[in-house]
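Sequence in, structure out.
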Amino acid sequence: MAKYFDVHPANPQPRTIGTVVDSLRSGALVAYPTDSCYALGCQLGNRDAIDRIRAIRNLDDRHHFTLVCHDFAQLAQFVRVDNDVFRAVKAATPGSYTFILPATKEVPRQLLHPKKKTVGVRIPDHVVTQALVSELGEPLLSSTLLLPDEEEPLTQGWEIKERLDHEVDAVIDSGDCGTEPTTVIDFSGDEPEIVRRGAGDTSRFE
């Protein structure tokens, strides 16, 4: 059964955040809220949890996982960013955007797009997510909590606990979060490509 953590949305309890991070370091798969919607998250090198995310969401090997980062300095360790892209990404973060960029050697091979060698990165504008990633000290490997054959992500902690009780190890509930996935912008080509229109405003990339 998944552990259920009730976390204050504006002032996350340090002890609770520490407990969740300890479980992540021990191999847990966690459902947590973001500024867009709920996500599934685990530690970067956790192959078992990655396989569980793929199974829960019925994903193939072309799926772009996302590295949820605390700040731009952390993000820049895992993706290559030229000056033009730097300015565009910097202006849109923190926020409800995922950026697809060429990965550095810091990213495990199994997380890369098999042909493009790219990975998704984002810096969320959400107090609880930021507290988690800050305490973890590294990006949180994530994927939107969108179940197969469903059009909208799950957005309520109690419902996630009910439906995924035996598939995740912990659920964080901090009240209402977003109901729409991130906007995804692919910067791996010559021009930015809007892959998915979501919670983030796309006008600055058009």
